[in-house]
Amino acid sequence: MHAMRWEALGRPGLGRRSLAAALAATVLCAPLLAGPASAASQTPEQAAAAAESAWPGLVTDVFDDRPMQDGAGIVTLEAPKRASDPAVVPVKLTLDPARKIRKVTLVIDENPSPVAAVFTIGETSGLTEIETRVRVNAYTDIHAVAEAEDGTLYMVKQFVKAAGGCAAPAGKDAAAAAKSMGEMRLKRFGAEEGTNGARDVAQLMIRHPNNSGLQKDQVTLLYIPAHFISDLTVRRGEDLVFTMSGGISISEDPNFRFDYDPKGAMPFTAKAVDTEGKVFEKTFAAGDS
Q: For residue 139, which of 14, 18, 45, 47 is within the disulfide window of CB 3.0 to 4.6 Å?
């Protein structure tokens, strides 16, 4: 099943637009690919075994069977063991700055499109923590695979009990979502206890329905086409903080909280592109919040 889902998605060489199109096409087939054993019909033990068995295929399809080391102490993945809302599951990644992590791939094994996001970290950003919110469609392992500057992969995982997140109805109606689509807000915070060194924290919020393609219109009962932010770039001054290539697993109204090396007052610029080719961009002056 996973090989079938990932034939178009897991191979290197796809451009960003092609990857987004492939993701959108894949989710239209997701109800057929889900299989007969739903999360509701499985015991937690069966769900855990299924999640474990899915991972080797994803290592092949997403990472080309590259060797991975135990990431304990190098990358930390925090997620609730039992999510209160499967459509909005908080996930936090913490990276060891000494390892010079340049990329992190977040994989939700049992989701219709397992790769939730790929984060590329700016070399001079000082970023060591990033948080977002994801949809979880079935009891599953969530894996974080961090790639260091020397190409070494480090893997950690967390089992999460949640189901139905990809098909959960949107939080706001389509008209309201369309009216505010693309609006951005940025909050800045001073250095917080627990951050790695003297790093400030910011939170970027983007209004977008991030439709998964598995949700139904509550009036017509027809599936709503997939429509989500596929690419995001955040800069501070001229320096890259991070980029994200995302899929259907990022929750409605994407939200990213991250730390950074302050290095004086500089503006932030955020640029997002969605699967319909719409571009949303905003610059936040050094004093804006």
A: 47
